[in-house]
Structures are given as structure tokens and as C-alpha cells.
Amino acid sequence: MSKRDLKKYLAELSKEQLEEQLIDLYEKFSPVKVYYDFVFNPKEDKLLQESKVKISHEYFPIKKPGARWRPKAKMRRSVAQKIIKHFISLGVDSFVIADLMLYNIEIAQTYSSQNLIKQDLFYKSIFNSFEQAVNFLISNGILTEYKARIIAIHDEIVQQKWKNKYDFEAILDKIDL
């Protein structure tokens, strides 16, 4: 069904029928429920904090009470990417999304400053996150507000002597920070 056909169909329905269909969608489909729950009660700060905790647990997992050992860090970039994509689909404020994108990189840097990482894929993955974050900041016109954090991320990369530090520098050269 095309968008035009949908509009025509909806125009033919009464207000009560429209309300009934929306309630059915809300009850049957979780993404619809999540969307309306967010629209009517955004609580972006709470959502941001919960998301930051999830991302930090990827690098610094919490030892469960009674367990003898601490779980190993999974360092999955996909967890943060999924959360960021969800934020974008909900229409969360671009400043909140930008904060989360940069936090993801910063927590990975904190982990790498304390642990030796041999996988080149880790560095490439964080570079991809950095590139996406910078592109997001530019496309939303908020790059200047996050300039200090972008520079701090770059400085930390140089200090930790990441193998791909020149890739990060190339992005900074393009945006002229």
C-alpha cells in the first residue's frame, strides 16, 4: 500500500474508527507502544543515563553478587549503535544523541587506557564511531558545541598511541578544528 492509498483509506474512517485502529496498533506492536510512551513521557535524561550504563557494562561488566569471577568485557560496538539508532527513530534531541555517541567513544578509550587491546578491529570500530559522530554533529549543526570533547578524544588517542591515530587526524583536518 502506498502512502497515498493509506491517506485515502484513513480519510474514509470516522474518528472512532481511527482511535480504535491506533489503540489496536499500540496493543499489538511493541515499537508503536515504545514510540507513544516516549512521545507522551519523554524523560530523555533518564533514557540517556540508562543507555550510558548499558554501554559502560560492555567495557566494565558488573560482578554479580555471589559470583566468584567478574565477567569479561565484551566491547560490542553494536550495543551502542543499536541504542543510538533507537534514539534517532524516537526523535530524541540531537544534543542527547551526540552526547551518547561521544560517550561511547570515551568509555572505549577509558577501557583501552587500562587494558591492552590486540585486536585491530577494536580501533577500526571506534574510528567508525568517531566518524559517524562527527558527521552527525555536522549534519545537525552542533559541532562547535562539542568541539572540546572531539579534541579531547583525539588527544587521548594520540596519548595512547593508537595505530590508526592518523585516520582520526584526517577527520579533524577536514573539519578544521
Topology at a glance:
Blueprint: H1 3-12, H2 15-28, H3 30-40, H4 44-59, H5 77-90, H6 94-114, H7 120-139, H8 147-160, H9 165-175
Brief summary of the model shown:
With 177 residues, the protein is mostly helical. It is 74% helix and 0% strand. The chain is globular and about 65 Å long.
Shape: globular
Which secondary-structure class do the elements indicate?
A: mainly alpha
Helix content: over 70%
Count of individual helical segments: 9
Mean pLDDT: 91
User: Distance between termini?
Assistant: 47 Å
Order of helices and strands: HHHHHHHHH
- Unreliable spans: none
Q: Rg to the nearest angstrom?
A: 21 Å
Largest sheet: none
- The percent range for strand residues is under 5%
- Structure summary, number of beta strands: 0
Protein described:
- The chain is an all-alpha fold and 177 residues long.
- Helices cover 74% and strands 0% of the residues.
- It has helices at 3-12, 15-28, 30-40, 44-59, 77-90, 94-114, 120-139, 147-160, 165-175.
- Helix 4 runs parallel beside helix 6 (94-114).
- It is globular.
- The protein starts with a helix and ends with a helix.
